[in-house]
Amino acid sequence: MKEKLWTKDFISVTTTNFFLMLTFYLLMVTISVFSANEFHSTESQAGLASSIFVIGALVGRLFGGRYVESIGRKKILLIGLILIVISSVLYFGVNSFVLLIANRLLHGFAFGVAGTATGTIIAQVIPKSRSGEGIGYFALSMTLATAIGPFVGIFILQRYSFNIIFVFCLICVSISLLLALFIKVQEISLTEEQIEEMKRFRLSNFIEPKSVPITLVATVTAFCYSGIISFLTFFSTENHLTEAASFFL
Fold first, then answer.
1. Is the pLDDT of residue 187 over 80?
2. Which end of the chain is more exposed for a tag (fewer CB within 10 A), N or C?
3. What is the mean pLDDT of the chain?
4. Cβ neighbours of residue 217 under 8 Å, at least 6 residues apart?
5. Closest CA relative to residue 149, chosen from 17, 13, 18, 12
C-alpha cells in the first residue's frame, strides 16, 4: 500500500508556494509598467524595478539557507511570509522610484527566505517512497504560477488600476501566511558542534558544489525568460497585442 502523499501539510506547502510564485510572476510583468507610468522612469530604470527583486531574493535565499535549521524551518517560513505581507502593503504607499526599488528589494529578500523554507519543508512532508512524484507535483505549482501569474497581471492591467494588482497580491500572500500557520513541521535538533560549524563563514555553508552544474543551466534559462517577461508588456502595448501577450505568457 502506497504512503499517503496528499496530506494536509503537503497541500498547504504546495498551495503556499503557488501563491508566492504567482505574485512573483504577476509583478514581474507589471511593475515595470507601474514604474514607467507613475514615476516616468526610463525603460532601463523600469527594468531595474522589475529585476532588482531577484537580487533581494538571492540574498534572502542565502540567509534562509544559512539559518533555516538553526532558527527553525517553520519560523523561517513565517518570517519570510510576514515580511512579504508587509512589503505588499507598502506598495500602496510607494510615491517615488527610490522607494519602489527599496520595497522591491525587501519583497525579494522576503521571497527568498520564504522560498527556501518551502523547498526544505516539502522535502520533509513527502513520503520517501513517493519523493519523485511529490516533488513533481510541487514543481507543478511553480509551472502553473508562471502561466497564470502573467496572464492575471496583464488582464488586471488592461481593465483596472495598479492598486487592484497590489490588492490581489496582498490577498494571495495573506492566504499563504494563513496556511503556513497550520503546517506541522518536524524540526531538526542540532548539536553544539553543528551550531558552531554553522557560525563559521565558509562558502560551502552557502553553496553546495554538486548543485553548481544544474544551477548554471537553470540560470541561463531564467536569464532568457526574465528578459522576455520584463519587457513584453511594453512591447505588447506598443503593438496593440496585449490580449495575445497574456496568452503567450
1. no
2. N
3. 82
4. none
5. 18
